[in-house]
Amino acid sequence: MRNLSVLAIDQFRIDQPSNAFYANSFAEHLAKHSDKISTPHKHDFYLVVIITRGVGVHEVDFRSYDVKAGSVFMLGPGATHNWELSQDIEGYIFFHTREFFDVKFGGRKVDDFPFYFSVQNSPVVYLGKKECIELVYYFKAIFKEYSDKNLMKWQKIAALVDLVYIQISRTYAGEAWIESKANMGYALKMRELEVMINQHFLVEKSPSVYAGKMNMSSKHLNRIIKSLVNKTVTDIIADRVLLEAKRMLIHSDIRIAELADKLGYEDCSYFSRLFKRRCGLSPKEFREGYNRG
C-alpha cells in the first residue's frame, strides 16, 4: 500500500510559535518543502495561494485547473492535490487551521465563505490585473507580518486573512446563489447533507436515509439540491463514493474487489459497473490510464 500523506501546519513552520498559521512566498515554499509537496497529498488545514507569475496545471481531486498570473486557489481540509509548474512560478501562500479563523471572529466561520461552503464549488478564481494587484497587497502584508515580531501580530494577520477572503468572495464567479438570502436556507441544507455524507458514505448510500436525518422528504431534499447544483442527492452521494474510489485506486495498490468491499459494495461487479457508468472507464482502466498519464 502507498499511503497518501496528510500534511499538518507544524510540518511547515519557520521559527514560529503558532501551530495554527503559516505564510511564505510561493517560490520559497516550493523550494523549501519540495520533499513533502512534490507528490499528491492532502492537508488538515485551509490553504490559499495567489499566482503572480508563471504557468502550470493544478490538479485538485482529479480535476485539472490552469495555473497562470491572477489565479487564486482555495483548498479546504481533505482535498487531494498536486502541482505541475513552470520554473519561473511566483506568488504568495498562506494556510491556517479552522480554529485560527473561527475563534478570532466569534460567530463567523471560515466555511461560510463561498469557496469553502460546498465541495461542489470551484477551488479557483481568476482575477483581472487590477483585482490581482489589490489582493497581492494583502498577501504581501500577511507575509511581512508573519515574518516580523510586532505587537498584536496574530490579530493583524487574522484581520488581513479576513480581508483576503472578503475580496475573493466579491470576485468569486459562479456562486451567486450563496449571496442570495432567498437561497441561504437551501445552501445550509446542502452543507448539512455534505457533512453527513462525508461521515457516513461508506455504510449509507440511500438518499431517503439522509432525508430522514434532515427531517424532510426525499423529494424535497432532491428539489433543494437540484435547484443549487443541478444534481440529485444520489449524484452527490455517488460523487463522494467515487472520489474516494479514485483516491484509493491511484494512491494504493488495493485490489478492485477489496476496494469495492471497503466502499460498502458486496458485489464487486455492481461497483465496477457503477464506476464505469459515472466515470466512463472501469476502475482498472482508470488506474492504468492515470498511471500512464
What would your notes on this structure say?
Strands 2-9-4-7-10 form a 5-stranded antiparallel β-sheet. The protein has 2 domains: 6-175, Regulatory protein AraC (Jelly Rolls, Sandwich); 180-292, Arc Repressor Mutant, subunit A (Orthogonal Bundle), CATH 1.10.10.60. A hairpin with a 2-residue loop joins strand 5 and strand 6. The protein has helices at residues 26-32, 34-37, 98-104, 114-117, 129-147, 153-171, 176-179, 181-200, 207-213, 218-229, 233-251, 256-262, 268-279, 283-292, and strands at 6-7, 21-25, 42-43, 46-53, 56-60, 63-67, 71-75, 81-85, 90-96, 124-126. By secondary structure, it is α+β, with helices and mostly antiparallel strands. It has 14 helices and 10 strands.
Distance between the termini: 20 Å
Helix content: 40-55%
Assigned CATH class of the largest domain:
Mainly Beta
Low-confidence regions: 174-182
What sequence of helices (H) and strands (E) makes up the elements?
EEHHEEEEEEEHHEHHHHHHHHHH
Largest sheet: number of strands, sense, barrel closure: 5 strands, antiparallel
Detail the topology: elements first, then pairings.
Blueprint: E1 6-7, E2 21-25, H1 26-32, H2 34-37, E3 42-43, E4 46-53, E5 56-60, E6 63-67, E7 71-75, E8 81-85, E9 90-96, H3 98-104, H4 114-117, E10 124-126, H5 129-147, H6 153-171, H7 176-179, H8 181-200, H9 207-213, H10 218-229, H11 233-251, H12 256-262, H13 268-279, H14 283-292
Parallel strand pairs: 1-3
Antiparallel strand pairs: 2-9, 4-7, 4-9, 5-6, 5-8, 7-10
